Amino acid sequence: MIDNLHISILREWEYFDADWYLQEYPDVRILNMDPAYHYLWIGARMGRKPSALFDNFINRYHKADDLIREIKKAPSPGRQSPYASHDDPLRKQPAEFIEPGSVEPAAVEGLRVAVHAHIYYADLAEEFARYLCRIPCTFDLYASTATEEARRNVAATFSNISNVNNVDVRVVPNIGRDIAPLFVEFGDDLIKYDIISHIHTKNLFIIMDLQMAGGNIY
Length: 218
Description:
By secondary structure, this protein is α/β, with parallel strands linked by helices. The protein is 36% helix and 12% strand.
């Protein structure tokens, strides 16, 4: 539970710069979320920096109390931070974004591949399955949805995908759209993979005719 005391302590921390955080991570501004709350809730766990002066914490703290405890132990500005590991390849450089297009199977040979699919509209699961069958390698499939009935239907549909090794479907609260399930629910599972694909349903009938939209999956 994040309370006003946690937020106050973080705002007073000399390494936290709310203006910099909003500029560096525009999604927080788009969500109209308090940058201090976002950092305590999920930002630190995503490896985001609290300011240009501090890298990140090695550990992924799931509770605000634990993160605040580490913040209180952080060194003063000008001293090297012991919390950022420069030997960790996940911290040396940002993840590479692969544009849509063809991928040769040889390019992912020997790599651990996972897909996270947020299936809020469970009636689109079969359409998603048809696209997922085209992935040119085997992979583990993690899916999130809104109800137990949807979970059972999605699990049954995705279990028939021939190139899937393991299927893990969970019910998650309808909070944070498709991003919260990706990081909060499945973050600890997905961190072990070399390549991750993230997709989610979008009911385009609400905003336009599906034919005009081209049946896009986001």
